[in-house]
Amino acid sequence: MATLAARALLLGARSSLSLPLRVASSLSGWPPVATADFPLPVCRGAVAPLFVNCPKRRFFVPFPFLRSPIPPRSTRENARGYRKGKWRRRPVSRKKLPKERFPELDVRICIEEELPNDPAITIIAEKLRMDVSMAAALAFSRLDNAKYETRDASVKDVDKYETVEISLLICNDDFIQKLNKDWRGEDHATDVLSMSQHIPELDLPVLMLGDIVVSVETAAQQAEERGHTLLDEIRILMVHGLLHLLGFDHEISKKAEEEMETEEEMILTTLGWKGKGLIKSTYDSHKQKFSYIFCDMDGTLLNSSSKITMRNAQALKEAISNGVRIVIVTGKSRPAVVSALEMASLAGNRGVVSESSLGVFLQVACIVPLVNRDKYGNNQALLYSLKHTVPVVAFSQDRCLTLFQHPLVDRLHETYYEPKAEIIPSVDQLLAASEIQKLLFLDTAEGISSLLRPYWSEAIKGQATVVQAVPDMLEIVPLGTSKGSGIRLLLDHLGVSENEVMAIGDGENDIEMLKLASLGVALANGSDKVKAVADVIGLSNDEDGVAEVIYKHVL
């Protein structure tokens, strides 16, 4: 705690804390004992014997246990174990009870000096002395017995230490935001932060577990939202932070999340504390709240084979049956979306999409025509395609137009369900055929990233926008048109608030949509840029990521 500028609570040098025997018995698996509560000596603020973390051990009793006298062995032997007569036999040996050593748990509760002098916070801090000890002892008792697949096992064999040190700091949002910025590179406040001090390589008699930092401001807000007291919420956050110090990390995988969630609920339930674990509470706070799900197609709802899996289809159907409206937001044309969803029985008037359903298609590029003679003169995009033999497809409502035959153009129809491209032999004829809303260059992923994107980002700067949904395609759309602008138009038309919307995507062109929604979800296969703005990272599109998100946050 040397790095945290805080004042420690002035706790008694020696106090007496009581713990009911029936509670202690339940923690260690021993049968309840019908006896009055007995005192546990606590020193150095909140130091207690870890009597529950050692299976098959008896409880520590602070008064001596006296053995009854040994009865006479024969008529010539008295109660003291000696024979009468001139021969004296050796005293009967008495086995000494083994003296068990219990690690001391040194818990330090601190209040950040910038917090106002609030008696309620002081009372909570006093209660947390025993709460942290009980939660830690219970968590320690399971480390060597329970089988975890994802926990970092650096902290183990707690019994070998003489002392286990852990601290809890209560602070405000500004203080925890500064810690997040300095230690994690994230400039925002969080409800709880864990800072480990354990170095496995050092063989020390003291286990310096680390620090748990809790923002009382955020905790108070969450307590009000979840309908319990501030102490209840701080206990939930403390348990979450403690498990992080013990090597649990819910962010690394689905399995890790499940294991940590189970441990949170076990500790809270066993100790009789109110509320759910932080992981469960976070998910539940988003459930039953969304009336709209805005979902991308390529790389999100469609897997790597451009198919909708059975589980994703089932999740969408269940969401619809629960009154949630699914809105497709994509750079694809409407006919392409209808074709893809028909294969999963999701098209039609009662499905996700139809010829007249709500949706954002072609990046809502139909607002402004992209290519016209007045603006582009020689229509450099189409001429570039002819000169360099790089296929480009012009989208015009429900039609796709191109200048020459190419396998990549055929693939656009066969794999991505877009309308079969019509070959128009000249630029002038193509422009005269219809108004164009979007241009799509097709090339290898390397060709797009190294040549086409840099070139067109500079060539049309200030005139149009370059976006990329998949690695081997580059889209050019009118300035000011995007999925985000399309969603805003749609929400305004419906009179729906952003708070009712959850958005799911994976590509660069989904960033604005995810920012706009109340809950923005990026799938694991998404780009780093989209993950950086997302509220939640889901499974990949090949792992039924859409279904997983819907079941967790909506159903």
TrEMBL record:
Q: List, alphabetically, the InterPro entries matched.
A: Cof, HAD-like_sf, HAD-SF_hydro_IIB, HAD_sf, MetalPrtase_cat_dom_sf_prd, YbeY, YbeY_CS
Q: What cofactor(s) does the depicted protein rely on?
A: Zn(2+)
Q: Which domain of life is it from?
A: Eukaryota
> Is Kinase among the key words of this record?
no
Does the keyword field hold Nuclease? yes
Q: Name one GO molecular function term.
A: metalloendopeptidase activity
Leader sequence range is 1-18
In the record, biological process GO terms are: rRNA processing
User: Which chain positions lie within coiled-coil regions?
Assistant: none
What's in the keyword line of the UniProt record?
Endonuclease, Hydrolase, Metal-binding, Nuclease, Signal, Zinc
Extract the PANTHER family matched here.
Answer: ENDORIBONUCLEASE YBEY, CHLOROPLASTIC
Member of which family?
Belongs to the endoribonuclease YbeY family.
Q: What is this protein called?
A: Sugar-phosphatase
> Origin organism of this chain?
Apostasia shenzhenica
